[in-house]
DNA sequence: CGAGCCCTTGATGCATTTCAACGAATGTGG
DNA sequence: CCACATTCGTTGAAATGCATCAAGGGCTCG
């Protein structure tokens, strides 16, 4: 039980999550040292659950590599995907005793795992770090509100456009080609539409030369401005 | 500049928001005393903005009476309502420098207003209270996820059913009649549908005898169980 | 080479929006 | 107190967007 803070992938993930030492957050190095003691590194096969909705929320995970989606399913098998998470995102920390959604890997992934109670107690002892974390929570809340806005106001094809544009900040500057780690079905469930509608959306954007589809999972945005015009009602 | 903590409406609102003294939260009485010094009581006419999206987020508001909705509008005039807030809800506290949505009163209302920086500094000095507040934030996040789920997975009429059932917890036990403080348009914008669809939803639920409509704003739930069956896909 | 999976495309039907008219409630000025 | 305007809600008819059903194509892997 412990992780190697000096491993580059781990270090960058932690910094992404809690800030880096030159952010001048009080107690951050000690926090990381203590975290490294109490945490574990876990390997996750593709398409497996890190945890499921209603399981006791015993652990908190920080994604080190790979991609994960947060989702909730109905009894009838339909599903809402809440978010796609990438390196450096934290998941599973809530005040409730059980998880309110499931977390499923999209491909092989690795994560740092730490018990929720340990995390809580560390937040109690490092208030500056906790504060940083609450800022992140606030940003997440803002992102979900954006998503709610899009779900309520935009057409299916516009929602897909939003989704593709949201990929851009994750890329290097000027980059407009990217790899989608999720299936059409995942995208459809994220945007609240059928698989077919999502697929038609891709086709239509390609036909209008707003995007190019090298392969099912390799997309290039050809005309960002036109895409932005398209999603603005 | 100061409010009267002993005024019943104010006291209950604050307790609803930060906990009551018998919740045994460290420093709570001092927190309330300090809050009372730095806060103001403001009267708000019906249908006016407490603040608008993109305004500098200078103040935090705690609703004492009346009802408020949080919303965001597009350039073309369409609108998404994020939430309806009632007595004891806090709004406007975020880490960003500007509000990310507008707050508009549904009818005449009163609120406690305090500067955001004062609120922040009090949270720094009363960590137990801040922690209580972050729990509330977590609950809000869970509620928004529920809303996102409903928006993505349910039909328009089902969403309306959800909305009506959500009114119940706010009522006394066994109570099934309530007053809706918002218009059909507000409801439609909350649930991401047209005014007409919302209206047809009410009519249909009335025709099926799941609800009764005494007047436009007075609704009775006649058969809660059937309504729950209806919204479960 | 064939099986299986995922994606695409077409055809059809249903849910929801849009356009339009009407009705009920409320307020205003004569 | 009544005619009138105004606002808000309801209802109908037509148009549209999206889901569903169904078939076929391309990729990957044994």
UniProtKB/TrEMBL annotation, chains A, B:
SUPFAM superfamilies: cAMP-binding domain-like (SSF51206), Winged helix' DNA-binding domain (SSF46785). Residues 34-92 form the Cyclic nucleotide-binding domain. The keyword Transcription applies. PROSITE patterns: CNMP_BINDING_3, HTH_CRP_1, HTH_CRP_2. Keywords: DNA-binding, Transcription, Transcription regulation. Residues 154-225 form the HTH crp-type domain. One of its GO terms (molecular function) is DNA-binding transcription factor activity. The keyword Metal-binding does not apply. GO terms for cellular component: cytosol. This is Transcriptional regulator. The lineage of its organism: Bacteria, Pseudomonadati, Pseudomonadota, Gammaproteobacteria, Alteromonadales. The gene is fixK.
